[in-house]
Every structure is written in structure tokens, then in C-alpha cells.
Amino acid sequence: MTVATSKKVPLLDLAALHAPIREEILAEITRVVDSQKFILGDEVKQLEQLLAQYSGARFAVGCASGSDALFLALLAVGIKPGDRVLTTSYTFFATGGAITRAGATPVFIDIDPATYNIDPSQVRDALERDASIRAVIPVHLFGACADMDPIMEVARRHDCAVIEDGAQAIGAEYRGRKAQSIGTIGCISFFPSKNLGCFGDGGMMMTNDESLARKLTALRVHGSIKKYYHEWVGINSRLDALQAAILKVKFRCLDSWTLGRQRNADLYRSLLRGSGIPVTLPEPASYQTRHVYNQFVIRCSERDRLKAWLQENGVGTEVYYPLPLHLQPCYAGLGYRPGDLPNSEAAARDSLALPVHSAMTPDDIAYVCDLIVQFCRNSGR
User: Which pTM value belongs to this model?
Assistant: First the structure.
């Protein structure tokens, strides 16, 4: 297969996104360097206030990464060795890894194949049959919220904490409510590839519970509220002032970047929907009232060949995720087998993320779509 023209369309182009605000970011970095105040402090407090207000939560607490945010949230709600924590198998490893780090056992269940998010009916069934489950971690995967109302209802009945893994979902909405403001604690990642990313690692935790906010604030500094006095055993997971300053600049662009991602997603659907090719496109559920498209993920039965074809023609893609958590080697001892969670396993076989970032042009998207159509037609599908 050949194409008439060839161009480069990276999965993510941070240089293009940062170019308009580069000088402003450099000025903020210089200001923080000159202040000689590098850990937590006013920079982090200001960012916490901004994002609490943005997310509709009463409190926000910065930390060193999205992975730490999940771990600290589990500690804050009292998860301990011997407890079991329910989550989806189709997610980034940090979701399950945080449970294991807390000394608990992950319990993996399947996804709704239409949304890639945890299946609320399986949450209900798991909590009704297993009283040792003490928390649920729904993941708002790819920038769209899980179906939170039924999850919250059944979790309340079984006295389970609900920790929202919103690493990919800052600004996403569920029935008009922002992600991270619905559960007991909501977690965000500022990894550079996220819609709001810093220049390294960073994370944040949201809650409406003042006592939990106080505990999270302590747990990120070894469980200490008063210096050298420790109410809990925490960890060192502080957000750097430099990262907070960078994030404050980028935050002002967040909604416009999200609009760009949404426009690009709509254009993909417009160009591919009527083409007759056997590719499944992401369609937000009715309760996903704001999808922020951290990823635009399609399904194709010849995923690996399509990925290779796009790469050959200059298009960056990624597989999120090639192996569900219940089949990871490190969790072999839990006893899961291939076929146990068929929707997660099918998504791992068929899903492919296409470029969707807001620096893309309509011509970029048309080029990607032309390649996908050519691939499918030349494959006889």
C-alpha cells in the first residue's frame, strides 16, 4: 500500500502546544528559581485553590505523581493489609499498583465495552458477594467519566470508599458534575502527556471532606502536620513549586485545548463514520456530558497491522493497553485466567489511540483518516 503524500503527525506534539506560552513559562521558572522556594509553598497552594474551584471540590492537595495520589488516597481512607479493593482490569498499571503498595489485594472486574470504563453492574455484584472489599476505584479512562451514580449508591450501601482515578480526565463531566468531585477522593495526574501536564511528574487529590484533606496534607509529608511530629506513617510525595508554577500557566490554556481536542474528535467521527470501514469509533455515553479526549481510541480487528501502516506513513499511535491487569505476570498469584474478563481482553487486542491533541490541523486529521480508509479497503475489509 502506498499514499500520494507523506507527512508527520505525532501522537502528541508538546513543542507545538508550548510554543505560544514558552516565554511565559520560562519567566515563571526564573521567578521560582530566584525565590529559592522549591517545595510546596505558595505556588502549590495557589494551584490547589485553582484546581479545587475548577473541579468543584472543596479541597485539593498536591503530591508528587498521579500514582502517589492513588496510593495516598487509599491510605487516607484507611485501606490496610488484608483489605480488598475493587477496580477495573483495563487501565494503566498505577491503578492496581497503588492497591498493592497499600498492602491490599486488588479485585479486578470487567469494563463496559462501549465506554472502556468499569461496569457498574459488576461493581454491584462484587460488593454483594464479597464483604471484605473496602474501597472501589473507578477509572475515568481516556477522558470520559465512569457511570458514577450507581457506583456511589452501591458503595454507600456497603460502606466502601470510592476513589476516582481521574488521571486522564481533568475537566471531564458526569451529568454536569466534574470528575474528581463525586467520590470520596478524586485523583489527577500531571504527567506531561496529560491534558494538563507539567514538565515532569506531579499529581493532585480532591475531596469534599475536610478531615480527609487534612490527612492527605499530612500523609504527603510523612504523616506530619506539625514539623517533626507524625500522626500517621506517610511518604515523601510533595509537589514541586516549579511544577506548580508551570501548571498555573498551562491551566489558563486547558479549556481551549480541550475544545480543540473535542473538535478533532468530532472531525474524526465525521470523516470516518460514513466511510463504511470496519472501525469502531468512540461515542460518549449520555451521562458523559463532557469528554475531554485525553485519548481518541478506535477499535479495529487488525489493530497491529493498522498501527504498523500508520507508523510507516508518519502517524504516531499508541496501544492503551496491550495486557489487562488481571493477566499481568506480577498478578499471576491472584488466579485470573485468559477469558475471565472478556471485554477487557478484547479491548486490549483491538484498541488503538490516534493523535487528537489540539495542535493538530484539519489536514492532519484528514490525512490520518485517509490512511485508515486505504488500509481497510486494501485489506479487503
Answer: 0.94
Alpha-carbon span 143 to 146, nearest angstrom: 10
Domains and CATH numbers, the chain: 17-251 (3.40.640.10), 253-378 (3.90.1150.10)
**pLDDT value of residue 237:** 96
- What tens digit of pLDDT does each residue of 188-245 get? 999 999 999 999 999 999 999 999 999 999 999 999 988 899 999 999 999 999 999 9
Phi, psi of 11 (to 5 degrees): -60, -40
- What is the separation of C-alpha 68 from the centre of its chain, rounded to a whole number of angstroms? 14
What distances in angstroms separate CA 316 from CA 280, 309, 311, one per listed residue?
Answer: 19, 10, 6
| One-letter amino acid of 212 | L
Length of the chain: 381
Greatest alpha-carbon pair distance for the chain in Å reads 69
Average pLDDT, the chain: 95
Q: How does residue 86 score in pLDDT terms, banded at 50, 70 and 90?
A: very high
CA angle 222, 70, 218 (to 5 degrees): 25
Report the Cα 279 to chain-centroid distance in Å.
Answer: 24
* 138 close to 162: Cβ distance less than 8 angstroms: yes
The answer on pLDDT for 4 being more than 50 is: no
C-alpha cell at 358: 489540539
Beta partners for 299? 280, 351
Q: Which three cell numbers stand for residue 241?
A: 513549586
Separation of alpha carbons 41 and 80, rounded Å: 31
Q: Which amino acid is at 236?
A: N
Supply 320's cell numbers: 492503551
Work out the number of other CB atoms within 10 angstroms of the CB of residue 238.
19
Tell me how far apart the alpha carbons of residues 134 and 126 are, in angstroms, rounded to a whole number: 11
Residue 367 C-alpha from the chain's centroid:
27
Instruction: Determine the Cα–Cα distance for residues 261 and 189; give it in Å rounded to an integer.
Output: 18
